[in-house]
Amino acid sequence: MDEIKEIKGKEQRKILFRLLSYTKPHIKTMILAFGLLLLTTGGDIFGPILIKIFIDDHLRPLNLEFEPLFALGAAFIGIQIMNVLVSYFQLLKFQEIALKIIQQLRVDVFTKVQQLGLKFFDKTPAGSIVSRVTNDTEAIKDMFVSVIVTFIQGAFLLVGIFIAMFILNVKLALFCLIILPILFFIMRAYRKYSSLFYQDMRERLSQLNAKLSESLQGMAMIQVFRQENRLRKEFGDINEGHYQAGMKNIKVDSLLLRPAIDLVYVFAMIIILSFFGINSFNSPIEIGVIYAFISYLDRFFEPVNQMMMRLSMYQQAIVAASRVFKLIDDQELAPEQKESANTRISKGEVEFRNVSFSYDGERDILKNISFTAKPGETVALVGHTGSGKSSIINLLMRFYEFERGDIIIDGESIKSYGKDELRKKMGLVLQDPFLFYGTIKDNIRLHHDVLSDSEIEEAAQFVQAHTFIEKLEDGYSHQVVERGSTFSSGQRQLIAFARTIAANPKILVLDEATANIDTETEEAIQVALEKMRKGRTTIAIAHRLSTIQDAELILVLHQGEIVERGNHQELLAKRGLYHKMYLLQNSSAEKVGDAV
Fold first, then answer.
1. Could you tell me what percent of the chain has a pLDDT over 70?
2. Which among 29, 178, 331, 404 is least buried, having the fewest CB atoms inside 10 angstroms?
3. Which domains does the chain have, with CATH numbers?
């Protein structure tokens, strides 16, 4: 787990101002909401003054004339009704602003996630990212909905109350000012300790999401290898850590929130009553003034209590926002392309020139890789696990940035093409294809509106997928569940092939695309592949050498280097690593045949 550090006051203010910058598009609505807030604050301040006038000017001297009493009563009731109505619209506007801000913040986070390079996802659990986009932004929403409104309303009310107190009695109002530094000290102490505990809770919650996500994705393996108890224990340990962090925070809340404020309130009440009691020996005291001061004291401490209670939500929001902004500010972006470039891929010739690459910046995975794949040709990459085959594909697809050497497409550096041009002209089929929730038609089209239904069907027929699709109850409108789990590996692969062919790429990249397909399906795909490769540059990773024997160029990789190159017959004649791999696979096939 990352080390938990206190978020200092300066950093908290920086995070808060950054959050408040999201209010800029809603300035007009904010001004309206603040205007309504001022009206409600005015109503809260004038209410006790009207009652003070009633007590001192009418009730105490028994001046009970109907007209002035009726006017006072009507004014008091009118203020209360106005407060209810205005409060409704004021809260409605603040809620509207808060929801729009969180809507934009979630879009910003999600957009940033789409821009991050695969290196970021290699080291960050998916559940942790989900937690930042959902749980953390929800905590920020609570701050905008409750905290900011409460703090601003409380600040307005406190200022108004002190003005009213000074109007009633300057000396007593000055005594009450002693309360402010005490409250400030309590708030500062709470902020210091609670930020640590909330950071710990957020980190633990992120780990819970990550563990849950991992368990759901690997449920088949968990059940097959009977790992339920281990996963339950690991989840329980993280959950216990979350509980302990929560208990620490509850202890701080229980001490520094309402109990501490109530204690200050009692001392303030003693000061006021003592002041009036002492003064009563020297001069008469207006009962209405006593009522007004006690009423203002109640109204003073109520927003303070609300602000202190909301302070816990504020701390959660600041911690959550720091995590969200850390993700937004992450610089491990996908490799940059010259988006304004007009360079176009016309032929699809691919050349690697002395490309070396390292994932961690220390150990080279690829070392001086050089080869050329011409249009209409197939270049196959073979080698043992960890030899660097997938890394070559990752660089060609611009999933990772490389610093040494260059990749040339049609005579231009791959970095000089716009991202849209690369993605439009390069098609990738993985060993384990990903299907989206929706229909088969949607998965082949991938929301490219330029593709008609007939073109989708032609692509499916081209890769031999049409046969099984038309047998489904709804055909191309058949619903695909999450990741296409109801289809066989071969069926998912055929849909992925159709998706790639529908895009009509110039460069075709196959990452062990036939590895998980049965023999009958593979024969159908091999026929499709022969048609697909015509006029296209094809770069294929293959474990089964039988699938790439007709390749114009076969590169044999070992520990990140090309150790052999040539076509199938040339490599067999060299009697090197390729020859050994071929004999090993053929002997295994013969043994299987003998066993059958």
1. 92
2. 331
3. 10-328 (1.20.1560.10), 350-595 (3.40.50.300)
What's the mean per-residue pLDDT of the chain? 82
Place of tokens 């998916």: 126
In contact, 115 and 264? CB cutoff 8 Å: no
Asked if 202 contacts 323 with a C-beta cutoff of 8 angstroms, the reply is: yes
Alpha carbons 322 and 198: distance in angstroms, whole number: 12
User: Which tens digit of pLDDT belongs to each residue from 414-426?
Assistant: 998 988 888 889 9
d(CA 352, CA 11): 46
> pLDDT-derived band of residue 294, with 50, 70 and 90 as boundaries?
confident
More confident residue, 280 or 98: 98
Kindly report the backbone phi and psi dihedral angles of residue 404, in degrees, each rounded to the nearest multiple of 5, phi listed first. -115, 130
- CA 98 to the chain's CA centroid: 18
Determine contact, residues 239/232, Cβ cutoff 8 Å.
no
Distances from the Cα of 306 to the Cαs of 103, 152, 155, 485, 558, in angstroms?
Answer: 26, 11, 11, 50, 67
Structure tokens at 556: 């044999």
Q: Which long-range contacts (CB under 8 A, 24 or more apart) does 278-284 make?
A: none
Please choose, from the candidates 101, 89, 83, the residue with its C-alpha nearest in 3D space to the C-alpha of residue 27: 101
For 233-243, what is the mean pLDDT? 90
Number of C-beta neighbours around residue 536 at 10 A: 19
Amino acid 122: pLDDT: 81
Beta bridge partner(s), residue 561: 558
Phi, psi (degrees; rounded to nearest 5) at 264: -65, -40
CA within 13 Å, CB half, 523? 2
The gap between the terminal CA atoms of the chain, to the nearest Å, is 52
Q: Is the pLDDT of residue 272 over 50?
A: yes
Phi-psi region of 154 (alpha: psi -120 to 50; beta: other; left: phi over 0): alpha
Tokens representing residue 375 in the block: 């249009």
3-state SS class at 3: coil
Q: What pairing do the DSSP bridges indicate for beta strands 553-558 and 537-541?
A: unpaired
Strand order in the sheet with 404-409: 366-373, 350-357, 404-409, 412-413
What residue type is assigned to position 184 of the chain? F
Longest Cα–Cα distance in the chain? 121
Please answer whether residues 74 and 92 qualify as being in contact, where contact means their C-beta atoms are separated by less than 8 angstroms.
no
In total, the chain counts a number of residues equal to: 596
Would you list the DSSP string of 120-170?
HHHHS-HHHHHHIIIIIHHHHHHIIIIIHHHHHHHHHHHHHHHHHHHHH-H
Report how far residue 290's alpha carbon sits from residue 295's, in angstroms, rounded to the nearest whole number: 8
The contacts of residue 89 (CB under 8 Å, 6+ apart) are 36
- Tell me: pLDDT of 227 over 60: yes
Q: Which residue has the tokens 């340990």?
A: 237
Q: According to the model, what pLDDT value does residue 515 have?
A: 64
In DSSP terms, 555 is beta-bridged to 381, 565
> What average pLDDT does this structure show over 272-294?
73
Alpha carbon distance 378, 537 (integer Å): 6
